Amino acid sequence: MTNPLLERNELPPFRAILPNHVVPAVDQLLTANRQEITKLLEDNVCDWDGLIAVIEALNDFLSQSFGPVSHMNSVVNTPELRDAYNASLPKLSEYQTEMGQNADLFSAYQSILTGPDFDTLDQAQKKSIENAIRDFRLSGIDLPKKKQSRFAEISKRLSELSSQFSDNVLDATMGWKKVVTDKSELSGLPENALGLARQMAEQNDEKGYLLTLDIPSYLPVLSYCENEKLRREMYEAFVTRASDQGPGKGQWDNSEIIHEILTLRKERAELLGFRNFAELSLATKMAQDTDQVIGFLTELAEKSKPAAEKEFAAICEFAQNEFDVKEINAWDVNFYAEKLKEHRFSISEEKLRPYFPEPTVLSGLFEVVRRLYDIEIEETKNIETWHEDVTTYNITKDGITIARFYLDLYARANKRGGAWMDDCRVRRITAKGETQLPVAYLTCNFSAPVGGNPSLLTHTEVVTLFHEFGHGMHHMMTKVTCAPVSGVNGVAWDAVELPSQFMENWCWQEEALAFISAHFKTGESLPPEMLEKLLAAKNFQSAMMTVRQLEFALFDFRLHLEFDPNLDDQVQTILNEVRNDVAVVPAPEFSRFQHGFSHIFGGGYAAGYYSYKWAEVLSADAFAKFQEEGIFNRQTGEKFLTSILEVGGSVDPMDMFVEFRGREPEIDALLKQDGILE
Ligand code: ZN
């Protein structure tokens, strides 16, 4: 095979992957896999090496081939690539459903599970078989033929709908821009953001300043721009993306897609014997049932809301006293919150930015993990990437390379917003008996270097980078060699954010900040008085942020628990009810937040957004052990490495946590971390 998508064991040849390769390559791969699996089943091989290892290799080859396409679709999107990607999705979904409903394959797995050799398998192998049996059931293996084909139809349609949802959000985001020629309209906007807006204008052959809905452009306007009219205009454009409201009204409207997604998810859940999609979602998660999730979120809301109300009242009072502003609208909150923060702590994200040049932050991050896990990270050259801004690294332990990663830090056109880690290669043993090293994609959307200076990060961006790197550690430090439970694979969704949120803690430690920060001109670390203020401001409005996350989590969970396709306008109704219960900032009538809620409609967080808070309890409680024993305590680091990072999805999350902590997690650890509980 000469198709560049199909080269084995090399890192992906990104620049050689062309949109017109994709569909033929996918067809070819799926046909080859189908033939191979049929042959295996005809031969009636029912042991690990003869069957499961072969299937694992086929699946790995498939994901190594399509992975780069999917990644490039997110980070260097073009209409041609998007078409090819979207044309492939139904094929892949069909293949997955077919495998999940393959009765012969299922009985082969079952005979291995109940066979005499099962006990000779290692923990990871056993777990991967148990997961596979569970997933066969969740793919409708037990259903009569007619219902199976309906199930397949639903799965295929759902994967198309998710992709359309994300495309609409991306198009709506890129579909809005504003040129400002009068600088006074941007009064208050920090130098960095002004520079970016000027650069954007130049790149687009415009005069003056160009504003977009990308976060590095949008957020500074909301946080610092004194021009209330402009803040409102951008806020409205942002929260109405892909909806029936706002400037792009109706153009990329996700309303019907949302309704269809929810309807089909419910139908799929019911086919499998669940009452609703929320129950189906929990079948693979750490949380035991829907009552437990609602109870968990409600308890957190009850404990946080009074503090959040006080925080919001403080903003309103401050705006009234200092600026004579009587009414605080949603588009004013960030602005006055920043002003209040500066007033109270005389600190702002912008004042901190010069202390966090990207190269220092990166080397500081690498130093943190060196101290914790005794690993070295070095930049590598001459590795092919998809964009000139991307850098690549090797991770070594005792002089041996154990993993690699790509780092794509800057926002640009045709790149999906937000930050994430994705896997490029998973750790496993190949058919030749070689260890395939894990490789990760780490993607952020920070502002690119402006005017010859390095990219200067806000402290929030530093935290984001540490967060994603925590996911990367989980993926890359694994010792498991069985792909379905290696790294982040097979980890219960509500435990996946444990290693990432855990890493954030080092951004708040004096001992670590000493080398994570250095002024980009003078090289001095964050001065003691600024450090003190940063730490004092850490929990500024943490209760407001908590209730905001709880609003998203409860909306998502209740929506998937209660949705009834026959009721009108239920999405907005549930959102309004949740806001009524937990929100402290009133949302304007035109807000259509749900139309851009890609986590649950375009990604994998459906009936799972609660996972962030759930895992935050785990991560806060895990970090508390480091606070007790020393934040760079090598033994504690080693214990975290061996109990949590290395085992990936091969151990149940609760067992994993208890192994590390010596007991089950406690909710108060999170409330203490956020300063909500003394
Ligand atoms: Zn995360």
Descriptive notes:
With 678 residues, this protein is of the alpha+beta class. The chain contains 26 helices and nine strands. It has helices at residues 19-43, 48-75, 79-100, 103-114, 123-138, 145-174, 191-203, 215-224, 228-239, 255-271, 277-282, 290-323, 330-345, 349-352, 358-373, 459-476, 498-504, 510-516, 528-536, 542-562, 570-582, 598-601, 611-629, 634-645, 653-661, 668-673; strands at 177-180, 209-212, 376-380, 391-397, 400-410, 420-425, 428-429, 435-436, 439-446. It has a five-stranded mixed β-sheet with strand order 3-4-5-9-6, sandwiched between helices. A two-stranded antiparallel sheet has the order 1-2. A hairpin with a 2-residue loop joins strand 4 and strand 5. Helix 20 runs antiparallel to helix 21. The radius of gyration is 25 Å and the shape is globular. The termini are far apart. Residues 467, 471, 497, 500 line the site of zinc ion.
Give the N-terminus to C-terminus distance in angstroms: 63 Å
What's the tally of helices?
26
Average residue-wise pLDDT:
94
- What small molecules does this complex bind? zinc ion
- Overall helicity: 55-70%
The largest β sheet comes out as:
5 strands, mixed
Number of strands: 9
Question: What is the strand and helix layout of this fold?
Answer:
Layout (H helix, E strand, L loop, with lengths): L18 H25 L4 H28 L3 H22 L2 H12 L8 H16 L6 H30 L2 E4 L10 H13 L5 E4 L2 H10 L3 H12 L15 H17 L5 H6 L7 H34 L6 H16 L3 H4 L5 H16 L2 E5 L10 E7 L2 E11 L9 E6 L2 E2 L5 E2 L2 E8 L12 H18 L21 H7 L5 H7 L11 H9 L5 H21 L7 H13 L15 H4 L9 H19 L4 H12 L7 H9 L6 H6 L5
Helix pairs in contact: 1-2, 1-3, 3-6, 4-5, 6-10, 8-13, 12-13, 12-20, 15-18, 16-17, 17-23, 20-21, 24-25
Bound molecules: zinc ion.
